[in-house]
Specification:
This protein is of the alpha/beta class and 303 residues long. The protein folds into two domains: 2-199, 3-Layer(aba) Sandwich (Rossmann fold); 204-294, Methionyl-tRNA Fmet Formyltransferase, Chain A, domain 2 (Roll). It has helices at residues 13-21, 46-53, 64-67, 69-73, 91-94, 117-123, 159-182, 215-224, 288-294, and strands spanning 2-7, 25-31, 35-36, 42-43, 58-60, 79-83, 101-105, 111-114, 128-135, 145-152, 197-199, 231-235, 238-248, 257-260, 263-267, 272-280, 286-287. The strands form four sheets. A seven-stranded mixed beta sheet has the order 5-2-1-6-7-9-10, covered by helices on one side. Strands 12, 13, 14, 15, 16 and 17 form a six-stranded antiparallel beta sheet that branches. A two-stranded antiparallel sheet has the order 3-4.
């Protein structure tokens, strides 16, 4: 088979490798245009860099559905594969490959269609998540399911840690999916529309901690927002990022820090949060013991 891969961020790297390692021909890699970063330095997407390292043809379009139809049609691809590409594909694009377009999605569809499924699974307290390989349809994440694989979410796992596990799982499952399509053994199952759960894109403001909420809820929020956009509060006139914390049953006044035996606890609506790693505005990440050595926290009010 001839494959065109669409992807942009780090999450898509294992899936691109899977396409290459499948033994089929990757005729092109489509990724988002290069962007200017700090000091106007142009940087490539992770997928573009890997594609160049592998000697693959790279295509970039501001709007692939507007600008890419003719060029993609001439590639003679049998299958399109998408993974965190970052643009919506038009029906004209989806109709180009005779074997269709499949997508790697980091949730157990139909739960968590949309952006940030990894983060929301942790924030919402799910015990299990996984990866889905589905047929790409015009409606976001609505296509028929080809394969799924589940995995438990660790009690202390952050979104960043789960991200790393799911991107590896996604690559392995994609390889199996490509083999099934190549052997004409692929079976697609429609999603149960009655079980659809949508999730929205995260914003920086989602990280503002409200200590009147239950400590267990805030624990999940902190883990779900690590490493981005990160959870935060205020200590005096500075922002204090909460990098790592865990809930406990201790009672305390809402938002007030209690220091005991070189440990710091913040009172919440129910229970408390034990602060484990923090970062004060203008400073670096510090374990709480080191932070307490240089900052007075006992009795401080956060928020």
């Amino acid at each position: 088979m001839r494959i065109v891969f669409f992807g942009t961020p780090d999450f898509a790297l294992d899936s691109l490798r899977a396409c290459v390692e499948s033994g089929h021909e990757v005729v092109a890699v489509v990724t988002q245009p290069d962007r200017e970063r700090d000091r106007r330095k142009v940087t490539y997407s992770p997928v573009k860099q890997l594609a160049l390292d592998l000697g693959l043809k790279v295509l970039q379009y501001e709007k692939v559905s507007r600008d890419g139809v003719d060029e993609l049609s001439l590639l003679g691809a049998d299958l399109f594969v998408t993974c965190a590409f970052g643009q919506i594909l038009s029906q004209k694009i989806l109709d180009i490959p005779p074997l269709g377009t499949i997508n790697v999605h980091a949730s157990l569809l139909p739960k968590y269609r949309g952006s940030a499924p990894i983060q929301w699974a942790i924030i919402n307290g799910d015990k299990v998540t996984g990866v889905t390989i589905m047929r790409t349809a015009l409606k976001v994440d609505s296509g028929d399911i080809l394969m799924q694989e589940s995995t438990p979410i660790g009690e202390e796992e952050t979104a960043g840690e789960l991200f790393e596990r799911l991107k590896v799982m996604g690559g392995k499952l994609l390889k199996k999916a490509i083999e099934a399509i190549a052997s004409s053994s692929a079976v697609y199952t429609p999603q149960d529309e009655s079980k659809v759960v949508h999730c929205r894109m995260l914003e920086k403001s989602d990280g503002a901690l409200d200590f009147s909420r239950d400590a267990e809820v805030l624990d999940r929020l902190i883990r779900g927002l690590t490493p981005w956009p990160s959870a935060y509060t205020r200590l005096g006139d500075k922002v204090l990022k909460i990098i790592k914390a865990k809930y406990c049953d201790l009672s305390g006044s809402i938002g007030v820090v209690t220091v005991k035996d070189s440990k710091a606890y913040v009172g919440c609506g129910k229970g408390s949060l034990e602060l484990l790693q923090v970062q004060l505005e203008g400073g670096k990440k510090m374990d709480i013991a080191a932070f307490l050595a240089g900052h007075k926290l006992d009795g401080a009010v956060l928020g």
